[in-house]
Amino acid sequence: MSLTTAQILDLAPDASSRKAGQDQAKPQKWAGLGRAGTVIWGEIKGSGASPYRTVADLAGPASKCTCPSRKFPCKHGLGLMLVDAASPLAEGEPPDWAAAWMKGRESRAAAAETRAKEPAKPVDERAQAKRRQAREDRVAAALDELDLWLRDLMRRGLAAARSEPYAFWDRMAGRLVDGQAPGLARRVRALPGLIAAAPQPGAPRPEAALGLGLGRLALLLRAARRLDALSPEQAAGVRAALGYPVTAEEMAARPDHADTWAVLAHAVEEEDRLTARSIWLVGRANGALAQVIDYGTAGSPLPPAPAAGQDFSGSLAFQPGDPPLRAVFREGRAGPAAGAALPGAGSVAAARDAFADALSRAPWLERWPVRLGSVRLGRLAAASTAAFAAGDASGSLALRAEPRLPSLLAVAAGRPVDLFGLYDGYGLQPLALVTEGRLYAMPAQGTQPVLLQVA
To answer: Where is the SWIM-type domain (predicted)?
Structure first.
């Protein structure tokens, strides 16, 4: 198998790596190129006396290079995969260093499978219960402080809140972190950004955005105080929103959902000095949407994942929560996509209903993935020249104003398209588009929609 150029560039950790990888994608720069199945390798001259040795597994995708770069994949890994994408490398016997890497990957996979089958170690239930109760007490105290803070804020009014400096919000967020409620802290830290944002199409006005953010906080706080009255899945969703982690034991007990999962898009965001990569998938048979999130820090690679435009044939396990969305990969393998269709795409009215249903079950949701089928992208009537929307006979959804929007409109070219994106009740942030049997996605970096797969 080979990845497309767009899929490879979407793996780049940043824009500079994308450019540097393209600079390395010249076959004349490489020596000893070859492949064995999905694994490719080659050597390239670097700044040292010895050439850098680069190897990659396209099925991961994963790569390793002897260069000193702390980025993953490095520019040489990207360049090697791009060389193969342009013209598949010839099959051959791997050199010792590539074979050793392949064997190491197989050994680690076998060891992980063995560990998964090993009986669980005895748990000190008393110590575990003590730690759990200590956290519950700290979170309860954090909720009390947040409640008092919100009431005081409402007494003074939104106008007074808008004049507060960033330190005012950061102090409250810090107390919530100390109280082991990082999910609440993230929401509080986001509030001053809502106030400072300039009005734009597809987004609420700053004062409305602040009110929405505070309202979601209040609803989440109210739900957290009455977990006993909620269903187990609803209670789990509230705890996840507060910042409680899902344990390995809990995930081990979750059922598998087997399907051929179309990988629609990757989205990368910065969260509290961490890089968060969301992989958006949809089941070709069951039509279920899933979001797999991986976190990394500066200088540490994100784990290998199926590229946008591929299919993941295997199982996902959904974390507890209502409605279900967050998932993890279980058994399976990435490979070429079975088609470029967007499973489950429907009308604008159906998308609004799906968002309303999700909001009724978790009213603190900030956005929700929606799929639109056979919509046209165009300018909103009686609106500013910068206001665009996706619409059909049942209605329209405003599109978020962003630098990538003009390119997306150019790809659609007035034709009916299928559209996947995130909707927050005001505007839609497009992440992938299907037109005339071609899947385009908005890359993690860059502004141009890229062709990922052709039916």
So the answer is: 52-85
